Each structure stands twice: as structure tokens, then as C-alpha cells.
């Protein structure tokens, strides 16, 4: 049985939550038994979610829940039923004992500061020393890891996969069409509202786009601490007729938004130590054949291949963002080519049923943690 240690798990929503939920589902689809120890669910609708595997939740103040979760993990390990451990981050294995079974740890990028204190660096390195394999979500994250990994551990890059994405209901499609009132083209960002996502740069680019696209609408879905600043910017630039903040959306509305979008725009940038480690929403947009605009800083360049599945710009440069959007919206043939390539990638190499073989190989010790699976193993 595989023991999964995670702080983030469905039905809560978020990138790591989706990744860990998808990973467990993919392992189950391959016939693997799992036992998940997760932090308490914080979202709504938990009673509607019925997992078909062992799942234990741990609440209370952080030190208490970590202690309770690790006590339970040690008990399961002592029972002899656990054949491997998979953790969502180095934090989830900090207090594990050294084990003789495979221990696979995921790395996302944001958890590794550029200028850590000596204490923090030693803490992270000591935790990774307990791992037999480390999976980085992008080449950027793999580079970030270089100063934190003990000698002999080399991260393996596996871009976060997605599962098949749902089609929107007819009722939701109709509702969205009526709400948009024929506005086109449709720019879409679906993310947590924080400065590094580049939503403000898209807003600032709209005056350059409207002369050629007077019916353009920019839909911003998601919640976060940057909402008030962004709304103030829209008012300041007199763009309220062209920007709509939708707040958090459910899965049906999310699918309808992707189906309707012309371009998915998230020109990410660095904000201090905050940077995008990958960007799974680019891949979700790609499933629906929507080309993306990404930023060059961080791991987004693994999610969006410049000139192939979308465009990559300098997200910190307003002119670069504006020019990329002008190009995308002004060239229907380019959008179609990028969208088709994005869709092929999302329906192929980015699917869990392809990527899960590498995870299983690492958990079973049949895959070299430095080089990954060979062609005949995928």
C-alpha cells in the first residue's frame, strides 16, 4: 500500500489539491492501494465527496495536526503494510524517520526562497535527505532545487498532468452566452488573484486592443487578495464595460469559460520571491483548444511552448504583454494553429494515464530517479 502525505487535498480547490487528487485517482485506476493522510478540508461541499480509498483528515492548530498526522504515519509504517511513501512537499516528511522503502517527494517551486536563512536551507536539505526520489514540476523548479538537495539526489522533471476535462452543461453554456451578450473576442484568466499572475498587465493592454476589437471582453475568474487593486485599476482606466470579475466559479462554469475563451491570458511575472512554478491552468485551457499567453519568468515556459501551444512574453513589461495580445487577437490562423497543438498536447502527453507510469516506477523502485522511465516504460 502507498502512503500519501499531503497538506492539500480535494474537495478543496487549488493547483496542488488538483494535482494530489489526480495522482490518487490515477494510482487507483492502475489498481494501486493508497492510504491518504491529509489536513482538514477547508472548502464547502465535503459531504458530497465520497472517496473509494482510505482517507484520514487532521485538524486543529498547525503544530498539533502535524504531530497527530505524523504519529498516525509512523503507526502505519510500523504495521508493515506500507510499501512506499509519496509526499506533496518536503514539509510532509520532515519528521519521518529514515525509511528503507521508496520515499517520493514533489517540488512545486514556491517553497524554495531565493535567499533562505541558513537554518531554513538546512531544514529543507535535511528533509530531502529522507527521499529516494524528488519530482520537480518544471525545469525552473529543478534549477531552484539545486541549492537545497543533498549530494547524490537529482530531481526528475515531470510536468503536472491533468485528467480529461468536463464539457459544460447546455444550461451553463446558454447562461454564459446570454450574460456575454455577444461580446467577442473573449480574454480569460482563471487563477488566484495575486500580482504575479499578471492580470493587471492584461488590463493595461486593453486600450491597445479595443480599437481593433471594440466588443472585446476580459473575464477574470477567481478570488484573492489582489481583487480590490485590480478593480480600482479597471475603474481608473474606464474599462468597466470590458472587464468582468466573476469571483470563484464551479466546475461547470469553469468548463463553459474555457469553451468560450478566445485566448487564456496569464502573463506571470516574479514578485519578490513569488513566482509561478508551472501553471496547470494553461494545460486545462489547452484541453479545450485555447491558446495561452504566459510569462517567461518561472516554470510557465514548460506549460506553454512559445510559438507552439501559445505565446510567451515578458510579463513584467507592459509593452511585451500588449504586443503579444495584439498578435494573438489579430491573427486567427495563428490562434487556430496554436490551439490545435495545445489540444493535442493536453489530450496526449499531459494526461495522467501517460504520466502515472513514471510515478509508479519511482514508487516501486523500477525507475531510475535520476533519468526517469525509458521509452518502452511510458
Could you give the topology of this structure?
Blueprint: E1 2-6, H1 15-29, E2 34-39, E3 54-58, H2 62-78, E4 84-87, E5 103-107, H3 118-128, E6 133-136, H4 139-145, E7 156-157, H5 170-180, E8 186-190, H6 199-209, E9 217-221, H7 227-236, E10 243-247, H8 251-260, E11 263-266, H9 280-287, E12 292-295, H10 300-303, E13 310-313, H11 318-330, H12 332-347, H13 352-364
Parallel strand pairs: 1-2, 1-4, 2-3, 4-5, 5-6, 6-7, 8-9, 8-11, 9-10, 11-12, 12-13
Describe the structure.
The chain is built from 13 helices and 13 strands. With 378 residues, the protein is α/β, with parallel strands linked by helices. The strands form 2 sheets. The protein has a 7-stranded parallel sheet with strand order 3-2-1-4-5-6-7, sandwiched between helices. Helix 6 crosses helix 11.
**Which spans have pLDDT < 50 for at least 5 consecutive residues?**
none
Q: What is the fourth-level CATH superfamily of the largest domain?
A: Glycogen Phosphorylase B
Query: What about the largest sheet?
Result: 7 strands, parallel
Number of strands: 13
Structural domain count: 2
Q: Element order, helices and strands?
A: EHEEHEEHEHEHEHEHEHEHEHEHHH
What's the shape? globular
Spatial order of the strands in the main sheet?
Answer: 3-2-1-4-5-6-7
Rg over alpha carbons: 21 Å
From the N-terminal CA to the C-terminal CA, the straight-line distance is: 22 Å
**What structural category do the secondary elements indicate?**
alpha/beta
Question: Mean pLDDT, rounded to whole units?
Answer: 91
Percentage of residues in helical conformation: 25-40%
CATH architect. name of the largest domain: 3-Layer(aba) Sandwich
* Name of the CATH class of the largest domain: Alpha Beta
Q: Which range does the strand content fall in? A: 15-25%
Number of helices: 13
Amino acid at each position: 500500500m502507498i502512503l500519501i502525505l499531503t497538506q492539500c487535498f480535494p474537495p478543496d480547490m487549488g493547483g496542488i489539491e488538483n494535482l494530489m487528487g489526480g495522482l490518487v485517482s490515477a494510482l487507483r485506476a492502475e489498481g494501486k492501494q493508497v492510504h491518504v493522510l491529509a489536513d482538514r478540508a477547508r472548502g464547502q461541499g465535503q459531504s458530497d465527496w465520497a472517496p473509494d480509498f482510505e482517507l484520514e483528515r487532521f485538524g486543529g492548530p498547525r503544530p498539533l495536526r502535524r504531530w497527530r498526522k505524523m504519529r498516525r504515519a509512523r503507526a502505519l509504517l510500523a504495521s508493515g503494510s506500507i510499501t512506499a511513501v509519496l509526499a506533496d512537499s518536503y514539509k510532509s516528511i520532515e519528521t519521518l524517520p529514515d525509511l528503507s522503502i521508496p520515499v517520493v517527494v514533489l517540488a512545486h517551486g514556491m517553497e524554495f526562497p531565493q535567499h533562505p536563512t541558513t537554518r531554513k536551507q538546512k531544514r529543507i536539505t535535511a528533509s530531502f535527505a529522507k527521499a529516494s526520489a524528488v519530482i520537480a514540476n518544471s525545469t525552473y523548479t529543478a534549477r531552484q532545487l539545486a541549492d537545497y538537495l543533498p549530494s547524490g539526489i537529482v530531481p526528475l522533471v515531470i510536468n503536472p498532468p491533468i485528467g480529461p476535462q468536463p464539457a459544460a452543461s447546455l444550461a451553463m453554456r446558454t447562461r454564459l452566452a446570454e450574460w456575454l451578450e455577444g461580446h467577442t473576442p473573449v480574454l480569460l484568466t482563471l487563477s488566484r488573484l495575486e500580482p504575479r499572475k499578471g492580470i493587471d498587465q492584461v488590463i493595461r493592454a486593453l486600450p491597445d486592443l479595443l480599437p481593433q476589437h471594440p466588443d472585446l471582453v476580459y473575464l477574470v475568474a477567481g478570488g484573492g487578495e489582489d481583487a480590490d487593486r485590480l478593480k480600482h485599476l479597471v475603474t481608473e482606466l474606464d474599462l468597466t464595460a470590458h472587464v468582468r470579475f466573476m469571483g470563484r466559479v464551479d466546475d461547470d462554469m469553469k468548463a463553459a469559460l474555457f469553451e468560450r475563451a478566445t485566448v487564456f491570458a496569464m502573463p506571470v511575472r516574479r514578485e519578490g520571491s513569488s513566482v509561478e512554478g508551472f501553471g496547470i491552468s494553461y494545460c486545462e485551457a489547452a484541453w479545450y483548444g485555447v491558446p495561452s499567453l504566459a510569462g517567461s519568468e518561472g516554470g510557465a515556459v514548460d506549460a506553454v511552448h512559445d510559438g507552439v501551444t501559445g505565446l510567451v512574453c515578458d510579463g513584467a513589461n507592459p509593452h511585451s504583454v500588449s504586443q503579444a495580445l495584439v498578435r494573438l487577437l489579430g491573427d486567427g490562423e495563428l490562434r487556430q494553429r496554436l490551439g490545435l497543438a495545445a489540444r493535442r498536447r493536453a489530450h496526449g502527453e499531459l494526461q495522467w494515464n501517460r504520466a502515472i507510469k513514471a510515478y509508479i516506477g519511482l514508487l516501486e523502485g523500477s525507475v531510475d530517479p535520476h533519468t526517469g522511465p525509458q521509452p518502452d516504460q511510458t
